[in-house]
Amino acid sequence: MEPAGLTLKLLLVGDSGVGKSSLLRRFTDGAFEPRLTPTVGIDFKVKKMLVEGRAVQLAIWDTAGQERFRTVTPSYYRGAQGVVLVYDVTRKATFTGLGRWLNELEMYTTSSSTVKMLVGNKTDKPDREVERKEGLQLARKHSLLFIETSAKTQDGVHHAFEELVIKILQTPDLWDKGTGKKGIQLMESSAQQHKGLCGAYCALI
Ligand SMILES: Nc1nc2c(ncn2[C@@H]2O[C@H](COP(=O)(O)OP(=O)(O)OP(=O)(O)O)[C@@H](O)[C@H]2O)c(=O)[nH]1
C-alpha cells in the first residue's frame, strides 16, 4: 500500500442550519441537497487535495449545530489543525451568536496549534442580513481567515478549504513536529469512503 502522506484534521462548527454539512458535501462530493437533515453528533469525510504541488489528505469533521445533538465537545477540537466557523449571511442571529463559538475556540484551541477561518455561507440567497464587511471586521478582530461562500452555487467553497490548508502548510509547527504529531496517518484506503459516527477512526486522532 502506498504511504498515505500528510493528513490534516479540519473541523466545521457553527449554529444549526448554517450549511456546515452542505459545505462539506459540496467540497467532497461536488453535490448540493436543498433539504439536508441536521447532523447528529459528529460526522466526517476524507478528501485528497493537491495544494501548491503538495498532496494532502483532509479529514474533515462536521459537528452538529444543535446543542442536543452535540456530545463531548473538547474531543472534537483535539488534534485539529484547522477550524472553520460558519454563519449564515441571511440569518443575523447566526452571526451575532458567534461569540459562543469564539469562546469555545478560545477554550479548546490556541493560535499556535490551530488555523481558524470564519465563513459566511449562503451568499446565493437574496435576503442577506450580514454584510461582507461585518464578517471581515469580526474576522480581523479575532485573527481569523475570512471568506464568503455558497454551498448551493459552490462559490468560494474550494477556495475556502484551499486557503485554510495553505495557511496550515505555511505553519510547519502545526503538522511537522517530528514527534509523531504529523497529522493523522490513514492506514486503510477504505477509510476515504467511510462516513459515519466516529467509530474506529476516533482512535487515530
Ligand atoms: N440557498 C442555500 N441554501 C443552503 C446553503 N448551504 C446550506 N443550505 C441549506 O440550508 C439547510 C441547512 O444546511 P445544513 O448543511 O444541513 O446545515 P448544518 O450547519 O450542517 O446544520 P446542522 O447539521 O443542524 O448543524 C439545508 O436545507 C441546505 O440545503 C447555501 O449556500 N445556499
Structure description:
This protein is 26% helix and 22% strand. It is an alpha/beta fold and 205 residues long. The protein has six helices and six strands. The radius of gyration is 16 Å and the shape is globular. A hairpin with a 2-residue loop joins strand 2 and strand 3. Bound molecules: guanosine-5'-triphosphate.
Strand and helix layout:
Elements: E1 7-13, H1 20-29, E2 42-51, E3 54-63, H2 73-77, E4 82-88, H3 92-96, H4 98-108, E5 115-121, H5 132-141, E6 145-148, H6 157-169
Parallel strand pairs: 1-3, 1-4, 4-5, 5-6
Antiparallel strand pairs: 2-3
Bound molecules: guanosine-5'-triphosphate.
Residues 16-22, 33-36, 38-39, 64-66, 121-122, 124-125, 150-152 line the site of guanosine-5'-triphosphate.
GO molecular function: G protein activity; GTP binding
Pfam family, one: Ras
Subcellular location: Golgi apparatus, cis-Golgi network membrane; Lipid droplet
* Ligands: guanosine-5'-triphosphate
In percent terms, what proportion of residues is strand? Answer: 15-25%
The string of secondary-structure elements, in order, is EHEEHEHHEHEH
Low-confidence stretches: 179-205
Q: First CA to last CA: what distance?
A: 21 Å
Provide the residue-averaged pLDDT: 83
Q: What would the principal axes of the Cα set say about the shape?
A: globular
Q: What's the story with the biggest beta sheet?
A: 6 strands, mixed
GO molecular function: G protein activity; GTP binding
Enzyme class: hydrolase
Keywords: GTP-binding, Hydrolase, Lipid droplet, Lipoprotein, Nucleotide-binding, Prenylation, Protein transport, Transport
Protein name: small monomeric GTPase
